Amino acid sequence: MNILLLGSGGREHAFAHKITNSPKCNQLYVAPGNAGTAAIATNVDLGITDFPAIKEFILKHSIDMLVVGPEEPLVKGVADYFAAEEETKNLPVVGPQQLGATLEGSKDFSKQFMQRNNVPTAASATFTKETIEEGLDFIRQQRLPVVLKADGLAAGKGVLICETLEDAEQSFNEMLLESKFGSASDKVVVEEFLKGIELSVFVATDGKSYKILPEAKDYKRIGEQDTGLNTGGMGAVSPVPFAKGDFLQKVEEKVVIPTINGLTKENIDYKGFVFIGLMNMEGEPYVIEYNVRMGDPETQAVLPRIKSDFVDLLYAMGTGTLDQYKIELEDFYTTTIVMVAGGYPGAYEKNLPIEGLESSTSESITFHAGTTSKEDKVVTNGGRVMGITGKGHSIEEALSNAYTRVEQITWKDVYYRKDIGQDIINYGK
């Protein structure tokens, strides 16, 4: 098959790595891609929401399947666009149609979907500028801390955990009255705080059948011991020790099955990934959020653990034949360390030369994210620059292999967390 993959981050390099290792892939194009995808596929200068230009490319290059990495094109209706065009109506697209993508595009829609389909989640209420006084009253009735969520897409930064009433009231006003997150905070979801251990469960679905992929735990804060500002993700580990038999069975019965059944019942055309952000509260799963694509950097930890053919999985999702696909997993651990630009998630420099890429180890995979090539040199081109995934027979071994590779790569003011996975190692001790 000739395959077109949309996106440019570490998730997309991990997808490209898996797709190009499949004998089912003839030619992979990545739009727009990064320096890592350029080494294994053909990068294409296309905007990920320029649907007419993407269509023209698909027809010109005889593309057999479109795989959508990030959420923005999905929320803007990329799957609907190709389904409605006569020349592309039969093209398998991996990614839900616009209504399904609203599970990520609107926190309010997502919460209502969970409530309608009896998916366990935190109690919440949604407010706008017009109902701000009711919202402030609602906040004052909550136990602290309280969670405020921008309704729309905010690049992973629209969730605030407020420890004091003063902070909650001020942030709520800033979100609604001062557009703290732009139009994403025209509506704000106020939610009870769930105390427990977070993890992510990934589900592949064709809208009828589903396959549960390896779970992962990611690390959002910039600072060690989970301090400082939220980021897009500083690392990930898979599998997660506390997500064993009994708990994962509860996740499947109480969360995955009601979610897939809800999509069917509500006639939501969903051929893609469901990323379920969960809280393990004393052994019971509660859904924090849905995302409608794979996570980043969790993908870089999850995909290397899939043993069965990945292109077969994508094609089965896109063509509604997932019930015929058998998923097989590797039995090793993976850990991903994200290397970022100095200053991230605030202001940071770009175009810094990256050294040490020519060396490599067999126990690790180097995934590019914010990189590009200039004059035959790989340079930084974003906040999260690379994700290094180590493999091992234990989390300790996987971490050791990841950090060995991390220490070989450098650029000016590079930063990474040195404590990824330590909470997992110490879990239960």
From TrEMBL:
This is Phosphoribosylamine--glycine ligase. PANTHER family: PHOSPHORIBOSYLAMINE--GLYCINE LIGASE, PHOSPHORIBOSYLAMINE--GLYCINE LIGASE, CHLOROPLASTIC. Residues 111-319 form the ATP-grasp domain. It is an enzyme of class 6 (ligase). Keywords: ATP-binding, Ligase, Nucleotide-binding, Purine biosynthesis. GO terms for molecular function: ATP binding; metal ion binding; phosphoribosylamine-glycine ligase activity. Its EC number is 6.3.4.13. It comes from Echinicola pacifica. Belongs to the GARS family. Pathway: Purine metabolism; IMP biosynthesis via de novo pathway; N(1)-(5-phospho-D-ribosyl)glycinamide from 5-phospho-alpha-D-ribose 1-diphosphate: step 2/2. InterPro entries: ATP-grasp, ATP_grasp_subdomain_1, PreATP-grasp_dom_sf, PRibGlycinamid_synth_ATP-grasp, PRibGlycinamide_synth, PRibGlycinamide_synth_C-dom, PRibGlycinamide_synth_C_sf, PRibGlycinamide_synth_N. Pfam families: GARS_A (PF01071), GARS_C (PF02843), GARS_N (PF02844). It catalyses: 5-phospho-beta-D-ribosylamine + glycine + ATP = N(1)-(5-phospho-beta-D-ribosyl)glycinamide + ADP + phosphate + H(+). One of its GO terms (biological process) is purine nucleobase biosynthetic process.
